[in-house]
Every structure is written in structure tokens, then in C-alpha cells.
Amino acid sequence: MNLQPKINKLITALRLHGEMVKVNTQQYFSEKQGRVCTKWILWEEHPNRDGETFYSRADLLKALAERWREVIESEKAERAEQGNE
User: Fold this and answer.
1) Where are the alpha helices (DSSP H) in 1-85?
2) How far apart are CA 83 and CA 31, in angstroms?
3) What are the phi and psi torsion angles at 48 (to 5°)?
4) pTM of the complete model
């Protein structure tokens, strides 16, 4: 199953709601596995700072989905507050 289109959609949705997230990849050689592996780094701020590292696309997708839920819940709370004023 190709997860990249879903990751791209979540990144786009987050950006449309004001959350600037960036994803970068790095490859490294794993002595344990004896091959080149890829890790994904999720940044919410400047890329020169430490980001959250994921070693599978599925984990990255879960983190982006959780961030999306937080954004939606925050917007719902803001709308509810405005309705009570």
C-alpha cells in the first residue's frame, strides 16, 4: 500500500489550516541490517533544529493524522467559544 499520497494530503491540509510542517528524508547505512535505510524527519519549525524522527512511513502517517485531529479539535473549540460569546 502506497502511503505517500496520504502523507502528502495531510501535509497539504495542515498547511491550509496554518500549520507549517516539513518532511525530509535521510538515508543511512545500517550495520545491523547490512543495507541502506531511510528515515523521515518531521519538522514543525526550522529544519536546522531537531525534528521528530520516524523509521517507517506508517509511523509518520500516524503522527500527521494525530496532528490533524489536534488542529480540527482546536478549531471546533474556537468556534464553540465564539458561539458562546
Assistant:
1) 4-16, 57-84
2) 57
3) -80, -15
4) 0.84
